[in-house]
Amino acid sequence: MLIENAAPSHLVPAREIAADDRPHNALFLCMFLAITWYAFTMYCDIALQPFQQSVLTCLAFITIPLLFDARPRDNLFGAACALLAFLLLEHAYVTIEMRVMGILGAYVAVIVGLMLSQRTPRRRRTSCAA
Description:
Elements: H1 2-6, H2 24-48, H3 55-67, H4 72-93, H5 96-129
Helix pairs in contact: 2-3, 2-4, 3-5, 4-5
């Protein structure tokens, strides 16, 4: 009897909470983690290995939007800012021969990562509605 009364019946399931009602701490934590991982991968690929392909950064462009796919608009903005930072760092520190393939790989990785991260929440919404 005590267990039945412990859980309030007025709680709303998490999927029905509007995006604006989510705690801002979670948003700031996601932003901090994404910025940290983008900065780490760019440092490893551009500063430590300027004469090799930027594989780690391309993997980050694919996987980071998939990790934080709850807010697709924020993923789009974050990926655009990270891509801009990557382009500026590539232009400043990498030779022209490596820059072309690095930028091309980053564009493809951003497109694939955003496409997958935009598709995942839509699939969840349709499965929850059914």
